[in-house]
Amino acid sequence: MVAEIIDGTRIAEQMRAEMRAKIAELKSRGITPGLATVLVGDDSASKSYVGMKGKACVEMGMFSVGERLPEQATEEDLLRVIERLNEDPRIHGILVQLPLPKHIDESRVIYAVSPEKDVDGLHPVNVGRMISGEPGFVPCTPRGIQELLIRSGHNPEGKHVVIVGRSNLVGKPLANILIQKKKGANATVTVCHTGTKDIAKHTRAADIIVAAAGRLNMITADMVREGAVVIDVGTNRVDDLTAKRGYRLVGDVDFEAVRQKAGAISPVPGGVGPMTITLLLANTIEAAARTVR
Ligand code: GUN
Known about the structure:
Strand order of the largest sheet: 1-11-8-7-5-6
Number of domains: 2
Structural class: alpha/beta
Helix content: 25-40%
CATH superfamily of the largest domain: NAD(P)-binding Rossmann-like Domain
Radius of gyration: 19 Å
Shape: globular
Order of helices and strands: EHEHEHEHHHEHEHEEEEHEH
CATH topology of the largest domain: Rossmann fold
Strand content: 15-25%
Largest sheet: 6 strands, parallel
Bound molecules: guanine
Low-confidence stretches: none
Distance between the termini: 49 Å
Number of strands: 11
C-alpha cells in the first residue's frame, strides 16, 4: 500500500476561507481581530515561526503586533509587555513564543497572560477548562491535528490513537481533546513517552499514530500497522546545502519507508504546520467574537 498524503496546506486554506466570513462579520461590527506575538531573543526557528504567524494574520486582514525583546530581557521586562497587551483593546490574542531563555520562569509568564486572551491555551485556567470539556482556548497544534484528521476523512471517533510524546504543547493536550465524549473525538488514547518500555508494541496496535517526540526518524516502518494513519508533528532541521536556507525541515517519521505501509500520512512540511497557524487565527477570531457576545 502507498499512503494517501494528508495535505495540511489545502485543508488549512479551506478553513481560512471559512474564517474570512467571520472576520468580515466582526469588522462590520467595528472589531478587527488582533493578535500579538511576543518573542524573546533571536533563536532562528522561533523567529521564523513568529514571522509566519504575523504574516498569516495580515493575509487574513487581521491586526497584528510583533513584540521583540532581547535575549537579556528580564522576566519583569517581559511581564510588563504582557500586562500592556492584556490592557490593549486592539489585541484579542497574545502568544508568547516558547521556549523562553533559561533565566525566565516560563510558568510565571504563562500565568500572566489573561485567560481571555490566551489563544495558545496554555494558561492553567484554559488547561482546566479543556480537561473538564468546558469552552475555553485549546492549544493550536493539537486542535489542528484533530481538525486535520476530521477534514481528511479520518475522524478519530472510536479509533485507537497512539501519541508518541507527552509535551504540554502537543501530547498532553491532544490526549485530553481526543478522549472527550464529543463529536470528532471519543477515541481510545495511548500516550507513549521516554518512560515507555516497548513503544513499537503500542504503535503497532494503533489505528492512528501521532508522532510528537521531537526526534528524527523516531517512527520507522516496522512500528506501523499496514493501513494505519500517521500524523507527523516533528519539525527537525537537517543540514542541506542544496536548500536555500542551508537546512530542510524533517518530521519524526521515516517518511519514505512509512508511506509504503501506512494508509495515510501527513508530510513535513505541509502537514500539521499550516494547521497550527490556522487554529491560532481561529482562536484569535473567537477571542474577538467573545468581546461582543
Ligand atoms: N513553540 C513551539 N510551538 C509553540 C506553540 O504552539 N506556542 C508557543 N507559544 N510556542 C511554541
